[in-house]
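SAMPLE LOG
Freezer: B-3
Tube label: C17
Construct: single chain, 414 aa
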Amino acid sequence: MINLNKYFLIYGYGISGKSIEKYLNNRNCDYHIYDDYKKIKKKKFINKDYLLKNIKKYNFFIVSPSIKIEKGHFLYKYKKKILIDLDFLSLELSKQKVIGVTGTEGKSTTCIYLKDILSKKYNTQIVGNFGNTILENKNLKNLLSKIDILIIELSSYQLDKVKFLKLNYALITNIFSDHLDYHNNLKKYIKSKFLIQNLLYKNSSLHLQNKLFLGYKKYIKTDKKKLSFIDDNISTTNDLKTHFKRLNLNAIKKLIFEIDPKIKIKINNIRSELNFRNQLIFKSYDLKVFNDSKCTNLNNAIYKNNLINSSKKILILGGKLKKQEKNIKFDIYDSLVLLFGNHSNSFLNHLNFINSYYYKFNNLNDLVIFLNLILKFNKYNYVLFSPGGESFDSYKDYLDRGNHFNKLITKLIT
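STRUCTURE (predicted):
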């Protein structure tokens, strides 16, 4: 376990770094802070020369999860001493039931649904990759004493580094090709997701789809008796919001039953939703427009588009494409594809058009002007804005991108 009387280095001064700084201050721990890019005049901040000269005196290195530690990195030989903020959270947990949720897509929505349902009977909190942390709270022990169930959204970065966190339940939503800049290849990325099983208590269960088990069973170390298979055999519908709501609810049914068999799950009781996740922003008798700006995964964007059973559909792709395996191509069926931004050609290198065709545009504004014209003169029933790329090429984040698309569509339709 972690001895708080030791000497720590916080490496990376982002959200998790600032959170762990407050935690260590509250515990009167000795530490320094180093960041590759931020040079802040603060007592605890050190430069790289000082760090390298004194590196052996640090007992633990607390790393921001997304920092890649590979051969050649000055911390590589100290990998056994590397921790993340969640390792310190494990020191504070006692009676709480802890649920870990990972996967490529749907993690945040799954966490929200779990909280929505469980909160009707239990005090439930979400932390982790979800975007919030509780470590900096001065009254952390008191806060945690009031929590019955803690839901932790876990990224592949966190699973790659966390050492001491323990889970009562674990769930993998799905696995698509993603984060290859960090993991180098799909195999390593898949293996990182299955590291969640190593965090489970001895008699705890791992929940996953049967197709994930069949596809990746060589990575599964958990006893098959402790596997719980998610029912993903649901009827498809062209209403993406409803489809994925059913899918996400099916994913958590057995897990909630294990926690409390008396809790009833009703689709109409789910009120909380993420912004710009399969959001239906316009509906008429012959046209539906979905805003799925949160989708930054090309594989998932194509999957959603192909779920729509229509030959009169438009898919809008754009942003900064994440690294893909060289020879991988995704089949796209019966669609008009509109691409925007400077990375359009990188998208085209990974698309296989089947009864489909495409146009490219410099930006989203130009694209929507064209969209306005074709909707007037052609009968398209569905428009899916599911970019499949990161927003940072032109926008602050996916929320900024989603808001911009909504404004453009509002002007177009009204």
